[in-house]
Every structure is written in structure tokens, then in C-alpha cells.
Amino acid sequence: MKQSKMGTRVHFDLNYVITKFYTNPNNREGAICFRHLHIFDTRAYYDLNYEIIKFHSNPNNLIPIIRKVQYVLDICTFFILITAVDWGICDAANHLCRSFWVRRKAADLTIRSNLIIFASHSKAIVYARLIDIVLGVSVGVAIGLLVALCGFIFVRLYKKRSQLQRRGSEQSRGSLPIYVNGVDSSMVLSGSEVVNGATNSVKRGNQWSWWGSHDKDIVISASGIPRYSYKDVQKATQNFTTILGQGSFGPVYKATMATGEVVAVKVLASNSKQGEKEFQTEVFLLGRLHHRNLVNLVGYCVDKGQYMLLYEYMSNGSLASHLFSEGPCKLSWEERLQIAEDVSHGIEYLHEGAVPPVIHRDIKSANILLNSSMRAKVADFGLSKEEVYDGRNSGLKGTYGYMDPDYMSTSTFTKKSDVYSFGIIMFELITAINPQQGLMDYVNLAAMSANGKVGWDEILDKELVGKCDPEEVGTMASIAYKCVQKSPRKRPNIAEVSQALSRIRQIRLRREGSPSFIGGEIIHVVKRIERQQIELSNMTSIKGV
Hints:
The longest helix is centred in the N-terminal third of the chain and has 45 residues, at about 130-175. The N and C termini lie far apart (about 95 Å). This protein has a five-stranded mixed β-sheet with strand order 1-2-8-9-7. The protein has a five-stranded antiparallel β-sheet with strand order 15-16-17-19-18, with helices on both faces. By secondary structure, the protein is an alpha+beta fold. Helix content is about 35%, strand content about 15%. The protein is built from 13 helices and 23 strands. This is Protein kinase domain-containing protein. One of its GO terms (biological process) is signal transduction.
């Protein structure tokens, strides 16, 4: 007990008080609860008016009222909470007695240190500077949140910069020159002007994020592809009135340009996120890919939040529309054989003639379009990738029934995956059966009975029975069956497939003694010379680098 100017003050150790109250409930010195808590700071006065705990007359009925923050003292489990209401003093009968003022010295910051109570006749003072603890915790939390926010912003900016750099390098690769007969024929579009040469092909920075920001004024660099305004396309399509079809990319409309050229306009659906990437791929790949068996991209439009691709018009639609229409397929065997040969030439150019090689990744009958002469061209390069990206796992993409089984198990797409898809198309031409309708079941059954060489007429389209040479059907079916082997190593490359299909026609022409055979041989020799010139040009360009 200590004496002061304020009167007689009794010195209590709080742990002792609680323990004493618990063991001897008749001792009123231990029967305390807080009514009004006032916390003093060296700078300001704080009145919290918070309730911590109540001790009832029955020492066995100890009810702590716990809120948010708690401090546990050494001897007994006594909770000091900073979020409550109404503290007070009570005697053994639980009557309120006195008010308390609480203060803690700046030096006494240890949470587990004993609290000292000084009691007088009218009031007690407890030294406990709890507010400093609260402020310290709050400041620490605020600093932690600020550091976390700064770290998050830094990571986002770093990833954005990496994406822009990677896309810039992809764009530069997309503008590689195409060599035809040893001549660099690449062109680069910047704004509305077409410029010869590949040196000005890349504009880096934010220009590449034209679909991320939907900026209408961003200039796209694309090799030799004209850019049209939305107004021009709207006028050419007569306000988008004549629809040709509907695909995953979006609707396709017929349009007549100011020059009189008839084109097909493919419009990206507004809710197609994947379509934006496919749009990008088609513009930059078809800007540098030119072959008579590839659908020609004649222009594009990025305006008013719309993305459109303008293709040459293929008046006879897709191969799928002829094979799987409601009525019988009217394609003759000669037309089917020619279509297979045309498609093989288109894929061969992608794999062997393009620099760098391109893997289509979505070869299917719906992407084979026919012109007015029923000649076939490969279309829809939205999922295509240059071979330099081969092996990246970007998720399964393609069409069920045409996808390479090895690709589905490894997520690795190769040239042989395109060969597998083309094998499916050849069987579609022979049978007129859709892959989703069990085509490969029929093929495997026929192969088991025919040993892969003869007897393919069992699955021949009934519209062709008696109208084609069974030997030619068997040869084409055997080629197709090699293409759909489960192991990619057992499949031929597309050049071998193309040559095998060409030999079917050559054998027929030789047998018929047609003068066209000589012309066909000349064309074959010219193709070999062109391919050698391309390879020689590539070697020269590499040495020049």
C-alpha cells in the first residue's frame, strides 16, 4: 500500500487480484469489473468505454466477453479486449462501485507484462497504454498492404512488358519475306500505304494490343494486306444483308467491292475472345502465304470495334456442304480425287514451301472451300502456328474427329498431325461419312478385313458404286490409312502423300494415252524446279544474314 497526495492508494497486481478473487469471493478487493475505461496517451485523451470482462458473485461462473483483440496475461487467462462496451467495478454481489481510468507508460509495451492497479476511495488508476499498441498494429498493417499493392503493380507491369516484347518478336517473324523463284516478294502495309520490302514491317509497343484496348486508330502492320474502313465494308455488303454461313469465328457475308470483285466477309462475333487471336493469326500468316490452293485474304477491317476478314469468294462453298448435305453427294470420283490432290498441294506448301513452315492445326472438310471450277483451297488459318512454336502446350484446339490422337495425349501438334487430319478428309471423300458419325469405326473394320490393301469398296459411297475405278479407290484408301496411323512416326509426310495422289492421276492418263499426261509431267517438273529455287533462295538469305 502506498500513500500519495491523492489519498490512500492500494497497489494491486492484476494477476494477483484475479487469482485472489477466484479463490476467495468474499474478498471485495478482488471482486472487480470495469465500467468506464479511459486510456490516456502522452499526446491526447481517449475514452473507449469498452467492456472487457465480468466476474459474478459465483467464482465458478467466470464469463469472459471476447470481441476482437485479446491479450493473455501470465498467471490466469484474463482477456483485455479493445472492442467492447461498458466496463465497471462490482462487489461480491455484482453491484457497480467505481469508475476506472487506465494508462500505460511508453516503456511498458510488452503485452505479457503485469498491469498495476492503484486504487483509492473514489477511483483507481491502471497504467496501460493500450492505444499505442493499437496504433502500432494499424500502422504495420497499413504498411504491409501498401508494400503488397506496390508488389502487385510491379508484377502486372512486368508481365505486360514481357507480353509486348514477345508479341513484337512474333510480329517481326510474321513479316518474314517470301521467296518465289528467288525473288523477295513480301510487302508491308503501314497505315493505308503498301510499301515494298520487309524492313519496315514491324511497329512495336502498344500498337500490338489492338484488340486488348479496342483502339480504333491503331495502325496494324501486315504484309501486303489492304485495310478497309467499316464504311467501305458496310457498303460492299449492302449493310450485311447476304449471309453465306455461320462459323465459330462469326457470320460470313457476301460483298461486292468498288472494283467489282466479289469477296466473302467474315465478321468476328462480338463475344468471341478466342476469335480475336484467330483474327490476328490469319492477318499476319495469310499476309505472307500465297499459293493457288490456299484461300487468298484480300483485305481486313479493324474499325468501330469491329474485326472483319475479306477473302476471295469461293462460289461452291465448303467440301463439307457437298459431302454431308441432306441429299446424296453429287461429287464425281474425278472431282473427289482432284480435291484431295489440291488439298495435299496446299498443305505441302504450308509444310515445305513457307518460310518458316506453318502447321494448320484445323484441317477439316468445313475448311476446304471450292471455287466455281470445283478446285479446292485450304481456308481458316485461325489456329495455325509457325513451326518455331511447335511443342508449346497451349491447350487442345481443333475439331473433334479430325484431331491427332497423339496430339490429344501429349498436347504437342506437329506436321504429322496435319497429315492425320488430311487422312480423315480422304476417307470422307471416299465414304461421304462424317467423322462424328463413326467414320473411323467403318475404316478400321474395312482395314481388318482388307489388310489395308484391298476391299476398301466396302465403305465406298453408294453414289460412286459402278462409277469409279476400284483400283484407284483402293490406292487412295491405302494412302489415307497410312495417314491415320496412331503413331506419328508411321505416317508419311505430306510431300509423299501429294506425290502418291498425283501418281493415281498419272497412271490413269498414261493408261488412256491422253496428251494431258505429258502436260502433267511437265507441271510436275516445273514444281520441282520451283521448290529447288525456294530452297536455294532460303540458303542464300541465311548466308547473307
